Amino acid sequence: MDVLRDPAHIGMFEPQDLEVLKGVFTRLKATGTIDLDEARSRSLARSIITLYRHGVRDPDRLVDVLQVARP
Predict the structure, then answer these.
(1) What is the value of pTM for the model shown?
(2) What's the pLDDT score for residue 4?
(3) Residue 52 has pLDDT above 50, yes or no
(4) Sign of CA dihedral 52, 58, 59, 63
């Protein structure tokens, strides 16, 4: 079945997806408004991935949403 090989169906990302995810994480980290220890870094990464998987694909929108969502 081709569907099983499609990365969108098995939770994998294409290289361009990884670049977006990495860029968003880097931008949020660079703002300095979020204190990132290891646990918070993992939580932030999970939040970015979750939003991305739910269709928020614009990097600027991801940054905006996550800056508002975090203290």
Answers:
(1) 0.78
(2) 46
(3) yes
(4) negative
